[in-house]
Amino acid sequence: MNDSDSTPVRSTGPRQVRPRTEGWTQKQDADGKPLLQFAAPKRAMPPVHLADLTPEQRVAKVKDLGMPGFRAGQLEKHYFEHYTSDPAHMTDLPASGREALAADMLPHLLTEVRRLETDRGDTIKFLWKLHDGALVESVLMRYTGRITLCVSSQAGCGMNCPFCATGQAGLTRNMSAAEIVEQVVRANRLIADGGLGDPRRVGHEEERVTNIVFMGMGEPLANYNRVVQAVRTMVDKRHGLGMSARGITVSTVGLVPAINKLAAEGIPVTFALSLHAPDDHLRDEMIPINSRWKVDEALDAARDYFEKTGRRVSIEYALIKDMNDHAWRADLLAEKLNARGRGWVHVNPIPLNPTPGSVWTASEVPVQNEFVRRLNEAGIPTTLRDTRGKEIDGACGQLVASEEDQAVAAGVPAD
Ligand code: SF4
Questions:
Q1: What average pLDDT score do residues 407-411 get?
Q2: What gap in Å lies between CA 373 and CA 381, rounded to an integer?
Q3: Quick one: which atom of ligand 1 is closest to the CA of 164?
Q4: Three-state DSSP class for 150?
């Protein structure tokens, strides 16, 4: 099912707004198309951390440092269960050499620059400075029965989507696996210290992050190996955070070969395709990667993901007023999804978070409701996602360090 999109722009319904960037110039390649940056600029990566290594490599490294291999297990316990890298807390390690071991195996990765909280304290946005001064963010959200962390996987992003604040700056560098995992560990530390609002319990377990969404800065599948290593560490019950793979959502704008690779990894994470338009005519402009892999190719890969993993796929759809929220687009989306079978997919429309001063804004409520209704009526389970984090600019496409953030970060040393 790989027909090139021949869908005409239908003229019924509200006027069509053409995607364009506002207040910034989209970088272009030699052919005048939006520039896609797959390779990260050469920048020094952070020091190797325990979470960058497999369990076997951790043992080998500890031995290289002159310690018995079982010390690796002790360090894993401190880091993944007690969320600490501080040797002062590691009293089960011999005092002599403890500091050096922690410094070698658990080097400092993220310096907190800024923390923004909602009034109720149930949503927190962190701004982190990496060892080279690059800035990334994560957002922690408490919901009933679960705690979700939205993590970054790259500093900046090379996918150049015109509506996205992160895409404007281009790709600074890939994050290491440990920098990705450290966002979770630091969030868990904060929760354990009672820093996330109402201290209700999730089930009978001690509270911690239960769900991860790779929807912060970056295109996760453009940093494939490190993201997969981070996910393996998140789900590892003996040597990692022991999270459920189902609670981890890896999203992409549609890097088809990487979707196929992910499906073959044997880690049944939830997969989300950020589609935002069902027709190539619009998606070519909204999501520049569509010039490489078209809507039908991305949907075929998503369907294959379901086939291989048995995990129902999510389609993310930012509803933008008069741009992609037309009733006929809801119908076309339903048609394309139903053409690939039943029961394999769920659609999450999310009203766009407008960038300050932008003419791009969220669809009106009746339009949102009609969009959802049409999909549901066509047999596609569809739920309007909440826009938590909006008030602190913490929802998808909003994660970019402001000038003010940069100024604050300039005064904070990286370690
Ligand atoms: S929408 Fe996602 S993929 Fe596109 S530029 Fe923004 S962060 Fe990158």
A1: 58
A2: 10
A3: 6
A4: strand
Closest CA to 344 of 373, 385, 307, 384: 307
Residue among 141, 218, 191 at smallest CA distance from 392: 141
Q: Write the DSSP symbol of residue 113.
A: E
Task: Tell me, rounded to whole angstroms, the distance of Cα 132 from its chain centroid.
Answer: 21
- Residue 83 contacts by C-beta under 8 Å, 6 or more apart in sequence? 185, 186, 188, 189, 192
Given phi > 0 = left and psi -120 to 50 = alpha, else beta, which region is 379? left
- Report H helices in 169-289: 177-192, 224-235, 256-263, 280-286
* Ligand 1 center from residue 159 Cα (angstroms): 6
Domains of the chain: 50-105 (1.10.150.530)
Say which residues have a Cβ less than 8 Å from residue 379's Cβ, sequence separation at least 6: 334, 338, 342
Instruction: Quote the pLDDT of residue 410.
Output: 58
CA distances from 10 to 13, 160, 202, 290 (A): 8, 27, 48, 20
Query: Is any atom of ligand 1 closer than 6 Å to the C-beta of 399?
Result: no
Q: Which sequence positions are flagged as catalytic?
A: 137, 396
Region 93-117: mean pLDDT is 95
Pocket residue to mutate for ligand 1, from 151, 219, 285, most atoms within 8 A of Cβ:
219
Name residue 237's beta-bridge partners: none
Over residues 344-350, the mean pLDDT reads 95
Residue 125 · residue 116 · CB < 8 Å: yes
Nearest ligand 1 atom to alpha carbon 253: 3
Element (H, E) at 174: strand 171-174
Concatenated DSSP letters for 341-404?
-SSSEEEEEEE--PPTT-S--BPPHHHHHHHHHHHHHTT--B-PPP-TTGGGT-STT-----HH
Q: Which residue minimizes the CA distance to atom 7 of ligand 1? A: 218
Task: Dig out the tokens for 289 from the structure.
Answer: 């990667």
By DSSP bridging, strand 135-143 and strand 123-129 are: antiparallel
The structure tokens listed for 120 are: 């109720």
Whole-number Å distance between alpha carbons of 56 and 50: 11
Question: pLDDT tens-digit profile of 370-388?
Answer: 999 999 999 999 999 876 5
SS3 205: strand
Q: DSSP per residue over 10-56, as a string?
A: P-SSSPPPPP--SSS---B-TTSSBP---SPP--PPPPP-GGGS-HH
The pTM (predicted TM-score) of the whole model is 0.91
